[in-house]
Amino acid sequence: MARVEVVRGDITREAVDAIVNAANSSLRGGGGVDGAIHWAAGPRLKEAGAALAPCHPGDAVATPAFDLDPPVRHVIHTVGPVWRGGAAGEAALLASCYRRSLEVADSLGARSVAFPAISTGIFGYPPDQAARIAVDTVRSVSTQVELIRLVAYDRPAYDLLTAALDV
């Protein structure tokens, strides 16, 4: 069973085998964590992502990490759901993002993975609900990943993820 931990910081600075990108379906970069990862990884990430697009909500694909500092070797791109009030299957799609990302990590041989808070930015997913889904899903998935790090960019996200982890 993977060890799950919550940290506060910049996901592009995590010392893990793979980081997960909360991407849009074009995989060409955007705002928030997606923009930060693309900036840190360099322009080749956009080219590699575009070659794999489109990526549909709930799915995940991987590219090399390019200019991200080792030990990061892979960026796993997942497209979270846009919040539409909760009755459009958003919870299942969000859980699928975490599950599929871990499946991709397993296929890459990654032993440590860092996740951002998927869909809680511009996609509008309520952060408290997203934190519970993230923790419940990564705890329940059978994976060869040994360390799953949930990376909170700010204190409110950190507090929500920590509370969900402590339940």
Automatic annotation (TrEMBL):
Entry-linked NCBIfam families: PRK00431.1-6
Domain Macro: 1-167
Name listed for the protein in its UniProt record: O-acetyl-ADP-ribose deacetylase (Regulator of RNase III), contains Macro domain
Pfam short name (any one): Macro
Matching SMART domains: A1pp (SM00506)
GO molecular function, one term: O-acetyl-ADP-ribose deacetylase activity
Top-rank lineage group of the source organism: Bacteria
